[in-house]
Amino acid sequence: MIGVDVPYWAQSLLRVLGGTVAVLLPAGTIVYLFLFKMMSFMQSRLGPMEAGPYGSMQLFAEVGKWLQKEDIQPQKADKQIFKLAPLIVLVSTFLLVAVVPFGPDAYFTNFDAGVFYMLAVSSISTLGILIAGWSSANKYSLLGGLRAAGQLIAYELPMVLAVLGVVIQAETMNMQGIVERQNAGEIFGWNGLGNPYILTQFIGFVIFMIAVQAELTQTPFDMPIAESELVSGYMTEYSGFRFLIFFIAEFATAGVFALIASVLFLGGWGVPFSWFGWHTIDDVDDWMNIGGPLIMLTKMLVLTFLIMWIRFSYPRFREDQLQRFAWKVLIPLALLNIMVTAILKVMF
Amino acid sequence: MTDLADRQKLSYIAAQAADARLNVELETEGMTLNIGPQHPATHGTLRIIVRLDGEQVVWAEPSAGYMHRGYEKLTEVRTFPQVTTLINRIDWLGSFANEVPFILAAEKLMDIEAPPRAQWIRTILFELSRIANVGLFLGDLGVQLGAITPVFFAFRDREYVLNLIEAATGGRFHPNFDRIGGLKDDLPAGWITETKQVMKKLRMFCDEMDDLLFGNEIFQSRLRGIGVIPADVAKQYGLSGANLRASGVDWDLRRDQTLPMAWDKVDWKVWTHPDGDCFARCWVRLQETREATKIVDQLLDTLPSGPVMAKVPRIIKVPEGEAWVSTENPLGEMGYYVVSKGDLGPFRVKIRSASFNNISIVPWVLRGVYVPDVISILASLYFILGDIDR
Fold it and tell me: What secondary structure letter does DSSP report for A328?
């Protein structure tokens, strides 16, 4: 534990700052690395090159552009709710990041129902999207909003079920506890790698990542936005900084979900405890509070790379195909996974 | 086929019936959605009015004319050589192919024929513009279905073809290279070897598309069995080109009619597909692009020597008469009915463009499909706005 005694106001300030960094930094990194550069290289072009070395300042140019733009509201829109919607979506991202542990002491909150809380607040963004679609007074927005609602509800369930496997194996819903269990664990007596749950819960991991893809409305599940059908779905009527907030929320949520996936399946911030002779989380040295976030960032980048890779190479499903996929493939598979996990848990 | 007034009446009745059905059976309100005139999927200004029940289309009606430029009328105040500048812009992605039927019609009236080398080069450029056109379709197809990567590959490889067209004609999009009696110029030095390399690249591009799109399961599930057009319906609505061949009708004007062009001198295949769905239409176009590269390769091998221009008078006056010539353009059958009164310019030109007839099937084929399928059906029917609104 850190020996320094930090007063409550400073702790709160640190948390606010940390939360902002934890949301904005992944979003910026993902947008620059993947959306600007990786996508361009995949598509045999260079991407932004003018703003800063290799276009690294492009983000600031884009943000500056959006902030300057006029804030247009449709005449028949439900003005106040229309203004509120992007904020609700962004708030859900901040609420999500609150339970993600970044190190032995580097966390915002640490409580026993972490996983439960995470699954609960991740649906708040659906609310924002739905009211954005409704309040825009635009037919395309409405279609997009309704699609989003249907889709996000359908994919919430496989996500919950996929996480249940991890919870059964870890015997805790505490995110910090799940990290500890993975890094202190052992595979058939060998503890050189810990026991990351991606090995035992591989099906759960795949289902979780598919559900995340759908939850984030990335291609192949991007029907709520579907730029060739619905212009821009629920975002059609948004401009300027409200669009920017939607945009940040989209990529920040991608980052946060990747962080959560790395906590649940890849061992989170930890290194296998046996490497340094640690046994429980209390033994972990203080430098992991610096190293942990870096490890998390690396794992997040790997996972968001997967998300973006799929996004750039696949065409999109149709709404009914997506529902069929969720209810007929993912949910039975997840239930089977839970059953097998539970049986094995009892046996060993 | 019923006439226009009847069709309007029928669609009105259908709309009334749809309203009644919606309100009585399901007690939901229908919604009229304007897809277009400004919409990302209509690549231009086509407007499609669809009446929706949830996400299902109850009836649909295309409304063309937002980009009408009056080419038929404009040709009447231009001389014959000037007309090619205009008609280049009808199907702007395969522009050289637009010039050919008109020039052939004028040549038919004047009773002259281009020398063999000119015929060969015409055919080569015709097929190159087909590749430029359909190649972009293959990439754009991905965008319509939500895959953003293929379109960049399409633009990259189309650029090679456009460079070739530019090298030979001086114009990337609007070559204006065809002359009555032959061509403006001969091919530049080194063009043949370069073209062969580019054709190799384009075959690779086709393989790439085959892997990236046509082999993709989501792509197949989005297109197979969607928007099925049986052969007899396709014929009734006057579809042509790949849309017709995808319904199993083995009909290709390049093979089925004798024109002073070089298609009958080389070995190639007309691809058809029995299914008639969206996938079939896209697949036939992919095969056609491959076939076009083969045609170009073979024509380059057998390119005859000689002049590229027949003997024509300095001031072209087309003798009195009427002529109809149509060719198998990238989008389908394109023809010109040219009426001349013996003046410098045509008296009347009727343009038959493929897309206008191809989208006439939209009300029939869109009934009962979902909104995402509307987009994939429109994408697979493949129209160019300039080709709809001349």
Answer: I
Are B78 and B225 part of one and the same domain? Answer: yes
Domain around B13: 1-67+358-390
**∠ CA A244-A248-A250 to the nearest 5 degrees?**
115
Helix locations, A216-283, DSSP H: 240-265
Q: A190: helix, coil or strand?
A: strand
Q: Is A98 on the interface with B (CB under 8 A)?
A: no
Quickly list DSSP for B155-194: HHHHHHHHHHHHHHHS-SS----EETTEESSPPPTTHHHH
Cβ-based neighbour number of residue A348 at 10 Å: 5
Q: Which residue has the tokens 């205009």?
A: B86
If asked whether residues B270 and B367 sit together in one domain, one would say no
Residue A123, judged by CB atoms within 10 A of its CB (0-12, 13-18, 19+), counts as: middle
Contacts of B232 (CB under 8 A, 6+ apart): none
Q: How far apart are CA A159 and CA A176, in angstroms?
A: 20
Q: Is the dihedral of CA B172, B176, B177, B178 positive or negative?
A: positive
A3 and B CB contact within 8 Å: no
Lowest mean pLDDT among A6-20, A294-308, B40-54, B121-135: B40-54
Please judge whether A226 and B370 are an interchain contact, meaning their C-beta atoms are less than 8 angstroms apart: no
**Inter-chain contact B218–A314, Cβ cutoff 8 Å?**
yes
B217 and B230 assigned to the same domain: yes
- Percent of chain A at pLDDT exceeding 70: 99
Q: Do B108 and B211 belong together in one domain?
A: yes
Q: How many domains are there within chain B? A: 2
Pairing relationship of beta strands B332-340 and B321-329 according to DSSP bridges: antiparallel
A222-257 pLDDT per residue, tens:
877 777 777 777 888 888 888 888 888 888 888 889
Selecting from A139, A315, A321 the residue whose C-beta is nearest the C-beta of B147 gives A315
Q: Is B39 on the interface with A (CB under 8 A)?
A: yes
Q: Domain holding B111: CATH number?
A: 1.10.645.10
Do the chains contact at B212 and A313, CB–CB below 8 Å?
Answer: yes
Using the Cβ of B146 and the Cβ atoms of chain A, whether some distance falls under 8 Å is answered with: yes
pLDDT in tens, B81-111: 888 888 888 888 888 888 888 888 988 888 8
Of B55, B143, B213, the CB nearest to A228: B143
Identity of the residue numbered B370? Y
CATH code at position B14:
3.30.390
Q: Same domain for B293 and B163?
A: yes
d(CA B102, CA A89): 58
**At residue B17, does pLDDT exceed 70?**
no
CA distance A348 to B37: 65
- A 10 A CB-CB count for A13 gives 12
Query: Chain B within 8 Å of A213 (Cβ-Cβ)?
Result: no
Q: B195 and B98 in one domain?
A: yes
Together in a domain, B313 and B285: yes
Distance to chain B for A231, nearest Cα, Å: 6
- Of the candidates A143, A222, A312, the beta carbon closest to that of B371 is on A143
Decide if B31 and A219 are in contact by the 8 Å CB cutoff. Answer: no
Question: Which DSSP symbol is given to B370?
Answer: B
pTM, 2 dp: 0.81
Q: Is B41 on the interface with A (CB under 8 A)?
A: yes
**How many structural domains comprise chain A?**
1
| Residue B376 in this model has a pLDDT that exceeds 50 | yes
Q: Does any domain span residue A202?
A: yes
Q: HSE of B301 in the Cβ direction (CA atoms, 13 Å)?
A: 9
CA pair distance A27, A35, nearest whole angstrom: 10
Residue A7's CB is within 10 A of a number of other CB atoms, namely: 8
B153, B216, B370 member nearest A315 (Cβ): B216
B205 and B305 share one domain = yes
Interface contact B147-A314, CB threshold 8 A: yes
Q: How confident is the model over B224-249, as a mean pLDDT?
A: 87
Binary contact (A318, B222; C-beta < 8 A): yes
